[in-house]
Design goal:
The structure holds two protein chains of two kinds. The termini of chain A are far apart. Chain A is mainly β. Chain A is 0% helix and 50% strand. By secondary structure, chain B is mostly beta strands. Chain B has strands spanning 4-6, 11-14, 19-25, 32-38, 45-50, 54-58, 61-66, 71-76, 85-92, 104-105, 109-114. In chain B, the strands form two sheets. In chain B, strands 2, 4, 5, 9, 10 and 11 form a six-stranded mixed β-sheet that branches. In chain B, strands 1-3-8-7-6 form a five-stranded antiparallel β-sheet, with no helix packed on it. Chain B is globular, with a radius of gyration of 14 Å. In chain B, 37% of the residues are buried. Classes of the chains: A mainly beta, B mainly beta. At the A-B interface, strand 4, strand 5, strand 6, strand 9 and strand 10 of A face strand 4, strand 5, strand 9 and strand 10 of B.
């Protein structure tokens, strides 16, 4: 079975631009969470979606938004990019009743110049 | 106080030794605890999950949980050079705003196993 897949792998943008990151969960998983990891830090929670509804939001500005589609894949959108948005963006999927275990994709490395 | 704190690294051990990684958390009432391993430039990989007080063993890895002391640890026996990575402690606190999946991570501890 395929794991969590994310695209693109790498992305370079300039300040002020917009970016869309994509994630497909493990087959059968209905929950998708997004995390931001800057160099030298642990991942920070951005959003969680379950059954297409937002179930949790971290301490991130409104420039960050996300959605989940009927096939449970998800998009993370970031508007008006800042240099500080440069990070590894991780998507994790989980299955209800699986003791909150989350499995991470390989991530999208975003560089903002 | 930070929500999840890990012992400052880096930690260096010789091959075959026991590596001990420690983590404390601030939110009493947290119920789910995880250790992830992250190789440089890669994404976190789940090693262990633990939910009740005591020890949980899986191969060379042992996770220990003490909820009264708000302390989680990971022991790696017979450490191998391939264990060299950053180890992330993660907790799901009760104050997760309705989300059962909001992992709160520590900064991680870099472990180096020397041949």
């Amino acid at each position: 079975d395929a794991g969590v897949t994310q695209s693109p792998t790498h992305l370079i943008k300039t300040r002020g631009q917009h970016v869309t990151l994509r994630c497909s969960p493990i087959s059968g998983h209905k929950s998708v969470s997004w995390y931001q990891q800057v160099l030298g830090q642990g991942p920070q929670f951005i959003f969680q979606y379950y059954e297409k509804e937002e179930r949790g939001r971290g301490n991130f500005p409104d420039r960050f938004s996300a959605r989940q589609f009927p096939n449970y894949s998800s998009e993370l959108n970031v508007n008006a990019l800042l240099l500080g948005d440069s990070a590894l963006y991780l998507c994790a999927s989980s299955s209800k009743g699986a003791k909150n275990i989350q499995y991470f994709g390989a991530g999208t490395r975003l560089s903002v110049l | 106080q930070k929500e999840v704190e890990q012992n400052s690294g880096p930690l260096s051990v010789p091959e075959g030794a026991i590596a001990s990684l420690n983590c404390t958390y601030s939110d009493r009432g947290s119920q789910s605890f995880f250790w992830y391993r992250q190789y440089s430039g890669k994404s976190p990989e789940l090693i262990m999950s633990i939910y009740s007080n005591g020890d949980k063993e899986d191969g060379r890895f042992t996770a220990q949980l003490n909820k009264a002391s708000q302390y989680v640890s990971l022991l790696i026996r017979d450490s191998q050079p391939s264990d060299s990575a950053t180890y992330l402690c993660a907790v799901i606190p009760p104050s997760s705003g309705g989300s059962n999946y909001k992992l709160t991570f520590g900064k991680g501890t870099l472990l180096t196993v020397n041949p």
